[in-house]
Amino acid sequence: EQCPASPAAGIWLAYLTRSAAPAESAAHLDKALAISPWLVFPFREEDIPAFEWAAGERPGDWTPKYYLALILWSKGRMDEAGTLLEQCSESDFAPLFLARAALRSADAPDKAEEDLTKAVAIDPQAWRARHALSRFHLDRGRISEALETTARSLAVSPGEAALQSDRVEALLAAGRGFQAALKLLQGSPKPTG
Predict the structure, then answer these.
(1) Global model pTM greater than 0.70
(2) Rounded-to-integer distance, Cα 108 and Cα 115, Å
(3) Helix pair 48-57, 7-16: axis angle to 10 deg
């Protein structure tokens, strides 16, 4: 009760009060699940029962499944994490799709690419999603797609070093020579600070 508001603290409070005060427990769970999942990374083994309970209490809500998947992933339980993330397709949270793409990339690359594309569509300004999609294309030797993706990425975030690097790599892989890459780097905005 003394913790600052956070999804983990709220889920634990709901879990601990579930038998003694069911209505209060439900209110705590609702409040916890209403908090943005941005930069929330549960990982403790002892959190598993509380997050499993929360996922069972709110089967239509993707958030507790996402948190539980992160915990299981951190414990090397990839299959279970992947199964939970598969149940989260209704999410509008780009990092979820980046995480799911990372888990899918080896075994289901087409689905991973769909997830990366969805992450970019959900948050078009997010350079990390664009970088992940560019890396996906580059790592698979899909140079024409990498050229297209990196060009669009730099149109949105021209000063982002990771995207510039992706573009340089795509240009070199396409055989456009060092001059195009050099021109890009010479025209790049200089970092501040």
Answers:
(1) yes
(2) 11
(3) 80
Closest-CA residue to 67 (of 30, 95, 109, 102):
95
Question: How far is Cα 80 from Cα 68, in angstroms, rounded to an integer?
Answer: 9
Distance CA 150, CA 171 (A): 9
Taking only the tens place, the pLDDT of each residue in 135-191 is: 999 999 999 999 999 999 999 999 899 999 999 999 999 998 778 778 777 876 555
Other C-beta atoms lying within 10 Å of the C-beta of residue 31: 15
Greatest alpha-carbon span in the chain:
70
**Position 140: which residue type?**
R
Distance CA 33, CA 64 (A): 7
Residue 155, φ and ψ in degrees, nearest 5: -65, -30
